[in-house]
Design a protein that fits this description.
The chain is of the alpha/beta class and about 220 residues long. It has 10 helices and 5 strands, in the order βαβαβαβαβαααααα.
């Protein structure tokens, strides 16, 4: 049973988020609180598996609540559901420890599915926001070359497209999200993944990420 703590100050959204949790037999609602201080107090008393939190709280920032949860319960997954879709809020939340990010127009079904996705190791994120976040990664300075010789400095077995797809996979994005970001169909994503598996002689995405990292490809 996945234990969920909700932090939301607007009654209508709290009702909707609570309904999404209570209507799924795999979830239990630890508590639903409306302030950041109340959330921190609950985090001192309880050990939720998932924290569903808004960023615009009346007392302290939701980012501070995320940071507090990360310090108290590092294994707690954090799903932000907010009206703020700008880069500053998104980046601050992710840097604080958020692993999922949705906007408040998400349906109850989408919220429940996102909690399941979080628990399965994924990172549910609004598609439009995902594209902007990934664009930031693409524009970020590239890391220095590895000190040890490897395939990074030689000819890679992967194409540039396959390497980009594998990097997105390593960040926890689903195949659907990757398809949206790369503007290709899910079928094409799967086709690329099969080629990557064959080239790296692996059988799963975790093996592919590990093997590519060891080879200096990521």
């Amino acid at each position: 049973m996945t234990r969920v703590l909700i932090v939301e100050d607007e009654p209508e959204f709290m009702r909707r988020f609570s309904s999404a949790v209570l209507n799924d037999p795999a979830f239990s609602l630890v508590a639903a609180v409306s302030t950041g201080l109340a959330a921190n107090a609950m985090l001192d008393l309880q050990r939720p598996d998932v924290l569903l939190v808004d960023l615009g709280l009346p007392d302290v920032s939701g980012v501070e609540v995320i940071r507090y949860a990360a310090s108290r319960h590092p294994k707690c997954e954090v799903l932000v559901v907010t009206m703020f879709g700008d880069d500053a809020h998104v980046v601050a939340a992710i840097e604080a420890g958020a692993t999922g990010y949705l906007l408040k127009d998400a349906s109850e079904e989408r919220i429940a599915a996102s909690i399941h996705e979080l628990c399965a190791g994924g990172s549910p994120i609004n598609p439009g926001i995902a594209r902007r976040v990934l664009a930031r990664f693409r524009l970020a300075p590239k890391p220095p070359p590895p000190s040890e010789p490897g395939l990074a400095g030689e000819r890679s077995p992967l194409t540039a497209r396959e390497t980009e797809l594998l990097r997105l996979t390593a960040k926890g994005f689903t195949f659907d999200t990757i398809g949206q970001v790369m503007e290709i169909s899910p079928h094409t994503v799967v086709a690329h993944v099969k080629k990557i598996y064959r080239k790296l002689a692996v059988h799963s995405r975790s093996e592919a990420v590990y093997e590519a990292s060891q080879m200096g490809l990521l």
